[in-house]
UniProtKB/TrEMBL annotation:
Lineage of the species this protein comes from: Bacteria, Pseudomonadati, Pseudomonadota, Alphaproteobacteria, Hyphomicrobiales
InterPro entries, per the entry: Acyl-CoA_DH_C, Acyl-CoA_Oxase/DH_mid-dom_sf, AcylCo_DH-like_C, AcylCoA_DH/ox_N, AcylCoA_DH/ox_N_sf, AcylCoA_DH/oxidase_NM_dom_sf, S04_starv_induced_SfnB
Domain Acyl-CoA dehydrogenase C-terminal: start-end pairs: 258-390
Transmembrane spans: none
EC number(s) reported in the record: 1.-.-.-
UniProt cross-references to PANTHER family, sorted A to Z: ACYL-COA DEHYDROGENASE, ISOVALERYL-COA DEHYDROGENASE, MITOCHONDRIAL-RELATED
Keywords for the protein's UniProt record, in alphabetical order: Oxidoreductase
Molecular function in Gene Ontology: oxidoreductase activity
The protein's name: SfnB family sulfur acquisition oxidoreductase
Residue ranges occupied by any Acyl-CoA dehydrogenase/oxidase N-terminal domain in the UniProt entry: 40-131
Stored SUPFAM superfamilies: Acyl-CoA dehydrogenase C-terminal domain-like, Acyl-CoA dehydrogenase NM domain-like
Length: 415
C-alpha cells in the first residue's frame, strides 16, 4: 500500500477560485465525435496519472482540456444549443476518461448530474441562462453531502429569502470538483425542508473551499470541506432540485450511471495493467512447464474471466444509458423504474469487477508488481474508495423488491 503523502500543513487555508475560460468550449456534433475526443484526451491524461496520484498533484491543465473539449456539455439539450447526446455515449466517455485517470472521470460526475437536473426542474428562462454558462465552458462543482448527518439525504445546510437573492449557511464535505469549479451548486433546504441547488459563484464572499481530502483513493478529485457562511446566491441561480424526486424522473439514474462508468473505467485500467505486466515483467511459475508467464493456463483463464465480467458490466452500462434516454424523453413511473433497475444491475457488476480486477492484478502479475515504483496499488485504492459511494448490498434489495414484489425503486440520487 502506498503511504499517503497528503500535505495538510496548510489545509485550513481557503483555496482561491480559478478564472473562467476566456473562450467558449467546443460544442460536439455527434456521439462518434464525443468518443473520439474522449480517447484523445485519455491518451494524454494517462501519461502522468500515476505521478498525480502519488504526489497528489491537481489535474489543472487536464481538467481545463476536459471541460473545454465539449464533453462537459454533451447532455445540454439541442433546444439550447447543446449536443444532447445519448446517455450511453455519456457513460462511455466517462469510462474512457476514468480508465486513464479515475479521479478526473469522477470530477465531471456532479457537473453532468446538475446539468441533467436543470433540464428536469428549471423553467425555460433559468435553463437558457445556466446552459449558456455550461456551453461557455463553465464548470459546476458540488457541495452536496454533509459529514455529520445521520443519513446521506439529511441536510442541515439552509437558505433564507432575502429578496432578489437567498443567503445560504452550512458546511459540506465530499465535494468533488469544488476546488477548481467556477460555480458551486450547494444543496440547501428552504423553510419547508425542500432541497434546492443554490448555485454560488466559486469566489463568492463567505464560500470557503479547503483542500483537506485525505482518502487513500481517488486522491485528486478536487474534493474537500466547503464552508458556507452567509453566502449570497441570486434567485436566478436557485434551482428547485427537489422537483426531480417528488415524481418519477431519470435524475437519480443519471447520477448513478456516471458512478458505474467510473468503476468500469477503473476495471479496464486494471485489466490493461495486468496484461501489460504479465507480458513484459512477470515470470512463469516453476511448476507451469511453460517459459512465459502469458502462457500459464491459470493466468489465461483468469484474464478471460475478468474480461468477460467487465464486458457484462459494460453491456449493462450501455443498456442503462439507452433506458435513461427513454426515461428522459418520456418520464413515467415505468420508464424511470426500468432505467433505475438496469442502472442498479450495472452498478452491482461494475463494483464487483472493479474490486476483482484491481485485486487480481497482483496475484497474476506477481510479487514484483507490488513495488512502489509501479504504483499499481492506485487502481485498487481507487476502486475500493469509489465503490463505497453507495452500497451494492442495497442494490440487490432494490432488484429483489422490483422483480419479486413489483416495487419500484425509491426516487433519490442514490437509486
Amino acid at each position: 500500500m502506498t503511504v499517503s503523502t497528503v500535505k495538510t500543513d496548510h489545509a485550513s487555508a481557503a483555496v482561491p477560485p480559478v478564472a473562467r475560460p476566456t473562450v467558449p468550449a467546443h460544442i460536439i456534433k455527434d456521439d462518434a465525435e464525443a468518443i473520439a475526443i474522449a480517447h484523445t484526451l485519455a491518451a494524454e491524461f494517462v501519461k502522468d496519472s500515476s505521478r498525480r496520484d502519488r504526489e497528489r498533484i491537481w489535474p489543472v491543465a487536464e481538467l481545463d482540456a476536459f471541460s473545454q473539449s465539449g464533453l462537459w456539455s454533451i447532455n445540454v439539450p439541442k433546444a439550447f444549443g447543446g449536443p444532447e447526446l445519448s446517455y450511453a455515449t455519456l457513460a462511455r466517455v466517462i469510462e474512457i476518461i476514468s480508465a486513464a485517470d479515475s479521479s478526473i472521470g469522477q470530477i465531471a460526475q456532479n457537473h453532468l448530474g446538475v446539468v441533467a437536473a436543470i433540464r428536469t426542474v428549471s423553467d425555460a428562462v433559468q435553463q437558457k441562462l445556466l446552459f449558456a454558462e455550461v456551453l461557455k465552458g463553465t464548470r459546476f462543482g458540488n457541495a452536496f453531502s454533509e459529514f455529520g448527518s445521520k443519513r446521506a439525504a439529511d441536510f442541515e445546510t439552509r437558505f433564507t429569502d432575502a429578496g432578489d437573492h437567498v443567503v445560504v449557511n452550512g458546511r459540506k464535505f465530499y465535494s468533488s470538483g469544488a476546488l477548481l469549479a467556477h460555480l458551486v451548486p450547494i444543496v440547501a433546504l428552504d423553510d419547508e425542508g425542500r432541497a434546492w441547488y443554490a448555485i454560488a459563484d466559486r469566489g463568492a464572499p463567505g464560500l470557503t473551499v479547503i483542500d483537506d481530502w485525505s482518502s487513500f483513493g481517488q486522491r485528486t478529485t478536487l474534493s474537500g470541506t466547503v464552508i458556507i457562511d452567509n453566502v449570497k446566491v441570486p434567485k436566478t441561480h436557485l434551482v428547485p432540485g427537489y422537483k426531480g424526486y417528488d415524481k418519477p424522473t431519470a435524475d437519480g439514474a443519471i447520477f448513478q450511471i456516471i458512478q458505474v462508468a467510473v468503476d468500469t473505467g477503473i476495471a479496464q485500467a486494471a485489466i490493461d495493467e495486468t496484461v501489460s505486466f504479465v507480458r513484459t515483467r512477470s515470470r512463469a511459475w516453476i511448476d507451469s512447464g511453460v517459459d512465459n508467464a502469458w502462457d500459464d493456463p491459470y493466468t489465461i483463464q483468469a484474464v478471460g474471466d475478468l474480461t468477460l465480467r467487465l464486458h457484462a458490466a459494460q453491456a449493462l452500462l450501455e443498456k442503462a444509458g439507452h433506458a435513461i434516454d427513454r426515461a428522459v424523453a418520456e418520464p413515467t413511473a415505468e420508464t424511470v423504474a426500468h432505467a433505475q433497475i438496469v442502472t442498479a444491475e450495472a452498478k452491482i457488476l461494475s463494483t464487483e469487477i472493479a474490486i476483482a480486477a484491481t485485486n487480481k492484478l497482483f496475484e497474476l502479475a506477481g510479487t514484483r508488481s507490488t513495488l512502489a515504483e509501479h504504483n499499481l496499488d492506485r487502481h485498487w485504492r481507487n476502486a475500493r474508495t469509489h465503490t463505497l459511494h453507495d452500497p451494492v448490498r442495497w442494490k440487490y434489495s432494490i432488484l429483489g423488491k422490483y422483480f419479486l414484489n413489483g416495487e419500484n425503486p425509491p426516487l433519490h440520487a442514490w437509486s
